[in-house]
Amino acid sequence: MDVGNDDIPYGFGPLEIRIAGDPSKLGLLRTVISAHAAAAGFGPDAVADLKLAIDEACTALILRMDPQGAPLSVIVNRLADEFAIEVCTAGALTDDPLEGFTGHVLNILADDVKAYNVAAEGQPPVAGVSMTFRPNTVG
């Protein structure tokens, strides 16, 4: 598929990447996110911001997840006017991943940031961070 062709719609549907809940596994994720953002038209500074944001969000979840080492799912959705990234894990978090430095960094880099820690009755807990980036406002 030629992504540069104007006849092809911008959004291709979500891309999901699953990685081990281990900081040493984040390098490949940063590479994939960088390539996806560059293909979406983000400039080099915006791509660097996205890499930092994904790294911060994943690390915040990894450090706070219970049980430790649970896998992470990263879902990237490219739309015409935004780039949405959700990082989630099956399990609860020990505290809010947007507290302190991580929250400050993510709120500077992303247009919208939300954290969730949901435990519905009879269902396993799910926790994550969702971020939205707009190409004209990143970097």
Automatic annotation (TrEMBL):
GO molecular function list: ATP binding
Pfam families: HATPase_c_2
InterPro entries assigned: HATPase_C_sf (IPR036890), HATPase_dom (IPR003594)
Keywords: ATP-binding, Nucleotide-binding
Domain Histidine kinase/HSP90-like ATPase: 21-100
Name of the molecule in the record: ATP-binding protein
Organism in which the protein naturally occurs: Mycolicibacterium arenosum
